[in-house]
Amino acid sequence: MKYMILTYASQQDYDGMAGKETGKPAWTGEDFAAMGAFMEKFNADLAESGELVETRALAAPVLTRRLGSKDGASVVTDGPYAETQEVLAGYWIVECDSFDRATELAARLADTPAPEFVRATAYADVRPIVEGSGDLLD
Amino acid sequence: MGAGDLEDVLRQLAPQVLGALVRRYGHFDTAEDAVQEALLAAARQWPDEGWPDNPRGWLITVASRRLTDLLRGEQARQRREDQVAGWRTVPPEPVTDSDDTLILLFLCCHPSLSPASQIALTLRAVGGLSTLEIARAFLVPEATMTRRITRAKQSVRDSGARFSLPPDHADRLDAVLKVVYLIFTEGYTSTAGPRLHRVELSAEAIRLARMIRTLLPDDPEVAGLLALMLLTDARRPARAGPGGELVPMDEQDRSRWIRPLIDEGIALITETLPRGPVGPYQLQAAIAAVHDEAASAGETDWPQIVALYGVLLQFSDNPMVELNHAVAVAMARGPAAGLELVGRLEAGGRLADDHRLYAVRAHLLERSGDHAGARTAYERAATLTTSLPQQRYLNTKAAAMG
Fold first, then answer.
1. Domain RNA polymerase sigma factor 70 region 4 type, which positions (chain B) (predicted)?
2. Cβ distance of A59 and B141 shorter than 8 Å
3. Beta carbons within 8 Å of B270's beta carbon, 6+ residues apart
4. Chain A closest-CA separation from residue B398 CA (Å)
5. How far is B393 from chain A (nearest CA, A)?
6. Which residue among B141, B245, B386 sits closest to A54, beta carbon to beta carbon?
7. Is A12's pLDDT higher than 90?
8. In CA terms, which of A109, B22, B303, B346 is 20 to 30 Å from B268?
9. How far is CA B255 from CA B118, B201, B246, B259, in A?
10. A2-128: which CATH number, 3.40.50.300, 3.90.640.10, 3.30.70.1060, 3.40.630.30?
11. Complex ipTM > 0.85
């Protein structure tokens, strides 16, 4: 069974990681390097155990383009998110034996090194993936 | 011989064996399966039973036998006796010394394939990387890469490509070199994913270029590409700081550059350039050589680099080359001259959303003492790049402008 692990961040979080003061302290070079090393190891472990299907990080929310329509014409909006709104920041797709195992994997993310104020509110979601329309109808 | 030797030898021979099989029998995809099985058999038998006198011949014979079996099975299923008769008439030709790797490369870089497929197929058939390894290096699921490679093989087959040096092989060589260079840059930029796999891609590209050079020792652009990659790869240890951030060349610790690679690259390009005709890879290698030869950033021979970019610009209409030219001009003649070129490039619009243009402008404004302008440009560059390490670098520079 496949599961998606999702993590979230705001534009403010991205700015902090990019070394900007945001009302909260910016990440130091050491903070950022420690997180990078942790993620690299986390991904390598998942690849090693054969449970990693795919993982991606998303670029900062400010680079988002949203497509909608207005009066019948399609409209593209730049960076529609507020500074502090938390949006999807990255995901892993893992293939493993059970929901509990996927949860166990996601729980390791709690050890991600980061400044204390970031760790205090960080969270991740785990969601089962629907493989085909059959899964929804059963 | 140790296990490592065996692996090296098999990897070296795999494309030659596959090439020989495809040349004789066609059936690219089935031939590949047959070669894989022959390689497996060799890995099992040779360590115990001793190495054959002619390892390449052994592999070709075993793989041919296996291919015949596979085709027989396939074609019995399809009840196509007429075709069976067709392949049966291929005489059991003795194993020759000809190396078919180059033809295999041309086949993988078939013009009907997208660059992504050309890369995947080349890494698979010539590089001998497993589908899983290629998938990991490009951060796509294995199933996706399997589909991509299967489709690529199918396109090659459907195109009716004959297994011989194509008549347009000069054009094809361009495609082959481009694919090898793309594999290299994929490994060198290392923007995502487990670092290790990416480094292996650069090493693989260099290995492929060496292989092509053995096959075409007189081609100056083949030598140029190899020299370019050696001279670029030599700087790898100094390119990133502890946080993974890119360290610009003028701030790199040059004692960490890999000397033997630099020496080899310089010798190669020095020997190649006078032979001509000159091409873009040789010019880029020559530029890299000028950088690598300088004991410090300050001692770089910028006028020579400007001259080389001047020639390179005649070969391509590439805005990144123009941007690099602007940097070189600024180093040789001062920031104002560079800023003028950057301004023209921006007006042209092709790099208007590219962080590199604003990063260069910021550096040049900083050097000319316009700190407020530099700050704005650094900030603009930071918002345009998606890479967090680069954003960190650019934001730090912006903050330092006060």
1. 105-154
2. no
3. B289
4. 10
5. 8
6. B141
7. yes
8. B303
9. 37, 24, 17, 9
10. 3.30.70.1060
11. no
